[in-house]
Design brief:
This protein is of the alpha/beta class and 339 residues long. It has helices spanning 2-24, 31-38, 78-84, 111-124, 137-148, 180-188, 192-200, 211-221, 226-235, 242-247, 267-275, 293-296, 298-309, and strands at 43-48, 51-58, 63-67, 89-93, 130-135, 153-159, 253-258, 281-286, 318-321, 335-338.
Length: 339
């Protein structure tokens, strides 16, 4: 009995120590450590309204702003930037709680705050008009900016964009949330293998997350303060009325979606096109790829985006118009016409 009690005591001490280590942040990486690992020769930093924003500015020509997804950062656009920079000036910032961008002093980590920082950065760079290429949660910032600043956005590309109303069936985290102690641990630490498996949920086999992406996300997940900042961002998030927002967009818009996207189902792409009633649009769905299609099939996606930004696909754009409710009580469906 004494040995059993002693063993239980040792076990309790080990568990308590593990909990203390996980909750203390001792496994976290400081922003300075991350900067040492991930700053590049092209990295630039700007003080935008009190936030130290990390960004990269490459190439010459018409400007294109790239906005990354949640749990990602500007490095996930490396291939896209290489493809575009010969013809465009490509600006890609790290949004709040991502990459090497610093903390928000006031504690405002909302998507609206990201929109303000993007606007401030482009103002500092003296870029009056530009295209936006945005993916996943970056799409929320992208299409809201295009709606609020229509005179500044020349073209818009939405890749598997978030921002539509959610039901239980369309919740991106459906069936993936852990409960109890598993969720508590996952919020504080993810092993490299767990990071790989989480990323793999958004890739369609045989595509797999590359090793560099797994290593970078493993490090960025441990960014000091990230857990608190992410919680603040999600606490204040409200979908609002995306139908009204999208109706305010006038810029030609390219909507790209992975047909096998398990995170945001491909039918949401049709909703985006349906609600962009004042913008000429082109919708393309790619079979055999998922949520990170620009990483799964980069050559195809980059070629399509480059062609769209250059105006080569304008002959394929459609205008979606809503027809008023008819007197006989039958609702007419939206009509499409080639622009």
């Amino acid at each position: 009995m004494k040995w059993l009690l002693f063993a239980l005591l040792i076990l309790a001490m080990v568990v308590a120590l593990a909990i203390w280590i996980l909750d203390s942040g001792r496994l976290d990486l400081s922003l300075a450590e991350l900067e040492n690992r991930y700053v590049t020769p092209d990295s630039r930093f700007a003080d935008v309204d009190g936030v130290r924003v990390h960004y990269v500015d490459q190439g010459e020509g018409p400007a294109a702003l790239l906005l990354h997804a949640s749990f990602m950062n500007l490095r996930t656009w490396d291939s896209m930037a290489r493809s575009l920079k010969d013809n465009f000036r490509v600006i890609r910032p790290d949004l709040l709680i991502a990459g090497l961008t610093g903390p928000e002093p006031s504690g405002d980590y909302s998507f609206d705050r990201n929109l303000e920082l993007v606007d401030g950065l482009m103002n500092q760079l003296g870029i009056e008009r530009f295209a936006i290429v945005a993916t996943s949660s970056g799409g929320i910032v992208g299409f809201n900016y295009a709606a609020r600043q229509p005179d500044r956005v020349s073209r818009l590309v939405l890749i598997n964009s978030a921002g539509l109303p959610r039901t239980r069936a369309t919740d991106p985290n459906r069936g993936r949330r852990q409960g109890g102690i598993g969720r508590w641990i996952a919020d504080r630490y993810q092993t490299p293998d767990k990071v790989r498996s989480l990323l793999a949920l958004n890739f369609v086999p045989p595509n797999q997350p590359p090793d560099w992406l797994v290593a970078m996300n493993y490090d960025m997940w441990r960014r000091a303060g990230r857990r608190r900042e992410a919680a603040l961002q999600m606490q204040g998030f409200r979908t609002g009325d995306p139908q009204a927002v999208l109706a305010a967009i006038a810029a030609p818009t390219l909507i790209l979606w992975g047909l096998d996207n398990a995170t945001v189902m491909h039918l949401e792409a049709d909703v985006f096109q349906h609600w962009l009633v004042n913008a000429p649009t082109l919708l393309k769905k790619y079979p055999g790829v998922g949520h990170y299609l620009y990483l799964e099939t980069p050559a195809v996606v980059e070629a399509d985006i480059k062609s769209f930004l250059s105006g080569e696909l304008d002959g394929q754009l459609l205008e979606i118009r809503k027809v008023p409710y008819t007197a006989d009580g039958l609702a007419s469906s939206p009509a499409s016409s080639t622009n």
